[in-house]
Amino acid sequence: MTKAQLRTQMRRRRNALTIAEQTGLGHRWCARFTGLPLFENATAFAAYWPCRGEVDIRPLLNLGRNLGKSIFLPTVSATGMWFGQWEGTPPPKNRSCGLRQPTKNSPRLPNLRTLDFVIVPLLAFDRCGLRLGQGGGYYDRRFQLRRFQNWHKPPLIGAAYDFQEVATVPMDPWDVSLDRIVTNDEIITPVNR
Q1: What is the mean pLDDT of residues 19-47?
Q2: Is residue 193 situated within a structural domain?
Q3: What helix, strand, coil percent values describe the chain, rounded to 5?
Q4: Burial class of 48 by CB neighbour count within 10 A (0 to 12, 13 to 18, 19+)
Q5: 128, part of any domain
Q6: Which tens digits make up the pLDDT trace of 148-186?
Q7: Within the chain, where are the H helices?
Q8: Average pLDDT, stretch 129-154?
């Protein structure tokens, strides 16, 4: 199956979830993730504001903020992706891409390595840690140094529904793999990396 075919299939499956199912699965995901020492010990992390059926991690964002953790959200543009600090309210919707993201006036994260982890949205994943995203390549480009150097900080954590697992995600040379995948039912540490 090609990446395009897999994206179409997974978007359909994700879009078939009702709002109640998305909310329930999102709460299960957040409960599983917040029990990890990775979250408990973190002082700063990056995540995303969910859209188009992505795992709803907003309870995690709110808990992190209430615990005094610094949280950064991605902003995408024609020049790439950067992370801006989340101020605790829903970020504005970007007119050009339709995503909720920090504005260009938000304080920017100066150094990715200061983050304790990054939660990454996805459409599909496999047990080797390969991730299929929306197709823009923003995360792959932003974290491309991981492919060329022994650079594993911050760890990349995939946020997924259990049904998004596939046997093999088609891979391109520029794809950056995940360090862990958390689903509503399981925490997966990739094998054969």
Answers
A1: 94
A2: no
A3: 30, 20, 50
A4: buried
A5: yes
A6: 666 678 899 999 999 999 999 988 878 888 999 999 999
A7: 3-15, 19-34, 37-40, 58-66, 138-142, 145-148
A8: 77
The pair of three-digit structure tokens given for residue 128, joined into one six-digit string: 């080797």
Residue 160 has phi, psi (to 5 degrees) of -140, 155
Round to whole Å and give the CA distance between 26 and 20: 10
| Structural domains in the chain (count) | 1
pTM for the full model?
0.89
DSSP symbols for 101-118: ---TTSPBPS-GGG-SEE
A 10 A CB-CB count for 108 gives: 13
Residue 70 phi, psi dihedral angles, 5° rounding: -85, 130
Separation between Cα atoms, residue 63 and residue 34, nearest integer Å: 9
Structure tokens given for 81 = 């992706």
Bridge partner list, 164: none
What domain range includes position 95? 3-188
Q: What is the CATH number of the domain that holds 88?
A: 3.40.50.10420
- Smallest CA-to-CA distance from 82 within 56, 55, 62, 101 is with 101
Residue 179 vs residue 99, higher pLDDT: 179
